[in-house]
Amino acid sequence: MDRLTKIIHYFVPLLIAQIVVFFLIKFGFDYRVSNFDKVLDGAITFSSIVVGFLGALLGILVSIKNSDIVSTIFESKERFTLKYYFNEAFTIGFLVVFLSCTMHVLRAKSSVTTDIIFYVWSIVTVAFVPSTYRIVSILMTVFFKSNIVISRPEDNNVISRVERNSIKERLSKNKHS
């Protein structure tokens, strides 16, 4: 990935969030809407589940670290990008939970501070979605490519093709008997 593309990829979640929040402001969405507490509860639940899922994916990534594709990633310069994407998703996820809890407390009070925290919460919550999507899609690509096996497993190469066919025939005769 060239430098400009990488820089753009770093800021995509934030750019998407700013565009969405601009439209939220334009259409008058704020913390005073009815049932906003349910939006906060949903944000906490969603981000908690996704952060847990990312933790599980990280565990899987570590368990397949000896596969060719994961070894290639860890040996390349892109391992820092992958680490950044993971850290970003985890950090934003925890910020969503923290700011949602803060908004639960502050939403009853209308003040400039509450307005500022609401807009920060909005940007962080919206940025969490593309940030998470990016790291999950990368990891799913890695996981599915790590399971592609071109050659036969070593255990199947121990006996010759003739011996394998005779064993198959013998087993199929035993089934039909």
Automatic annotation (TrEMBL):
<feature type="transmembrane region" description="Helical">
    <location>
        <begin position="118"/>
        <end position="144"/>
    </location>
</feature>
<keyword id="KW-1133">Transmembrane helix</keyword>
<feature type="transmembrane region" description="Helical">
    <location>
        <begin position="85"/>
        <end position="106"/>
    </location>
</feature>
<protein>
    <submittedName>
        <fullName>Uncharacterized protein</fullName>
    </submittedName>
</protein>
<feature type="transmembrane region" description="Helical">
    <location>
        <begin position="7"/>
        <end position="25"/>
    </location>
</feature>
<keyword id="KW-0472">Membrane</keyword>
<keyword id="KW-0812">Transmembrane</keyword>
<feature type="transmembrane region" description="Helical">
    <location>
        <begin position="45"/>
        <end position="64"/>
    </location>
</feature>
